[in-house]
């Protein structure tokens, strides 16, 4: 398992249309994979753009592919101001 951090930019005037689409995307994935996704954004906008981040902690094997397919179906891509960037992190030490 690994944690996925996906960040991207959205125009401020498109944020209200994007949020329910991302929420539906994350809800679908949470139900299918029993994980607890998060949606975050930087507190300030810059040049009319907000930076958003989707977080998928403890994503199981194969989740990356399912996420990419869900994103394609979701309708969010036209609302983004550029590409989605994915970072993958793994735990060094488990505290559990």
Automatic annotation (TrEMBL):
Alphabetized InterPro entries for the sequence: DUF4936
One Pfam family matching this protein: DUF4936
Superkingdom assignment: Bacteria
Name of this protein: DUF4936 family protein
Organism in which the protein naturally occurs: Pseudoduganella violacea
